[in-house]
Amino acid sequence: MLGSILSLTLIGAAALTTLVAIDWRKSLQNISLLGLFLIILFLDNLILVGVNQYPSLLLVPNGRWGTVLILWSGKLYSFFACLTIVVLIRQAIPCRQLGLTLRQNERSVLPGLLVLLAVSLAAAWIGSGWDKGRFSLPVLIYMAIMPGLNEELVYRGLLLGILNRIKPPGWNLFGAEIGWGTVITALIFGLLHGFWVEPGFAFHFLWYPVVFSSVTGFLLAWQKERTGSLLIPVLSHGAIDFFISWVRMV
Fold first, then answer.
1. pLDDT digits (tens, 9 = 90+) for 57-77
2. Distance (Å, whole) CA 160 – CA 138
3. Under a CB-based contact definition with an 8 Å cutoff, are residues 41 and 26 in contact?
4. 0.70 exceeded by pTM
5. Containing H/E element for 195?
């Protein structure tokens, strides 16, 4: 738990420092949103850690497939906690701005699906070079559903939506209005997959997971901004995790 808190503190501090350096006036004017940003970042990750440390909280037993942890309970707790936050802040940040809608922006579905296809093929290619494991349908079901459902709500929904309110998007990238929020959330997503600190301040940094997850996070954020919805990013995230696991089983 202490290691997770240290890691999150450093990542959160780096994100806020970057945002303040970019536009300190808007950052200070939206100090409550910055606080909410940190609360959600810590809440999502500490729920996962806390549930693992207290087995009595498990709704479904944890599992493991190779190095992959199967965390149904932690992901479900985090998902519903974040949905509660969505309800509480809906007057300040409408659901539409968080991507919580099935309506897609005009002429955005095809570009979004093309990115889905591209990341699926890339995931299958990358996974084919990793160590093989036994076939497990429950693992594939989990990978296709829970990480994408939970993490898209957190990173491309709430965190990106909050940063967009503080520093609105100002760049057009292939039809998507993106900004510093897209960049910062992508980097956070990457660091959480390959950077951690152990008690005693032993630092660990795995460049490949950080780079891969940062690029993936950027593409998923682009899909959300292009389509105006989390639907295709959730499907894309599920496809990435599914195919990167499936090719290792066959």
1. 999 889 999 889 999 999 999
2. 31
3. no
4. yes
5. strand 195-198
